[in-house]
Amino acid sequence: REELEAKHATLTKLSATSNKEKEEHAARRVNALKRWQMVTSKVSGEKERKMQEKLREELAEKERAAKAAQQKYLEELKERKRLHNEVQELRGNIRVFARIRPMSASVAEEDTLRVVKDMEDSFVGILDENDNVVKKYELDRVFGEASSQDAIFEHTQPIVISVLDGYNACVFAYGQSGSGKTFTMEGTTDKPGINTRALQELFRQCEKGSSTFNYTIECSVIEIYNENIRDLLWDQSEAHGVLDIHQGERGLWIPGLTTREVQNLDEVRALMKFANHKRAQGATNLNEHSSRSHMML
Prior knowledge:
Blueprint: H1 2-91, E1 97-99, H2 105-109, E2 116-119, E3 123-127, E4 133-138, E5 141-143, H3 149-154, H4 157-164, H5 181-185, H6 194-208, E6 217-219, E7 222-225, E8 228-231, E9 246-248, E10 251-253, E11 260-262, H7 265-281, H8 286-292, E12 294-296
Parallel strand pairs: 1-5
Antiparallel strand pairs: 2-3, 3-4, 6-11, 7-8, 7-12, 9-10
């Protein structure tokens, strides 16, 4: 019995020693794991710091490159503007084009003689009864009877770009009644004229350059009749003085004229429709009035 009790005591002591060793081993493992995590965290933090620093350097370099590219772009854009407008000036600040209108069906049926013809690109000839050229006039450009609305606008489109470059510009049609002025300038739905195409190009160019410039477009519509100026966008609930044309540093202007900011072609069309309605209301004899008045956008 004593021997068994001694063995039991020995086993109990060994078991306690084993448990203590297990606990110490577990504690050493925990401590070792903590030290490893601290070392790993330190290494990881150092790597992360170096990576962040590298990313900051790369971002700063890209920002410098972007600024340099933008500066170069602006310089090249300025040079393009200069060259574009030099070309326009070389072509002539005032250019005169002629467009020959086709004979109407009713006139053609009367076996009417043709008295003009386009010759090359810049000459118009006056014909006799035998189709011989008896006179020849030179202009900046001559468009024949088969000319399209596209071809007409191709030669006026550069002026729109000049407007965005800060130049004043004007395109107008001159000719006798029935010579095709309205068709050339306004056109039809399927064959728009210079006015519509110029406005489309204006908004297109603004959209194209919107990443570099901020554009604001405002429009006014006036009517000149018997040397009097009428503001066709004027809200009659507001006070309005007498309108007169003034000469300023940037050209002609009209103090007190109503302006409306527009964002697209549809908004311009809406204002034109409103202005046309007021124009018609202001006419006592519509035909006589419209044929003797000038509406300007």
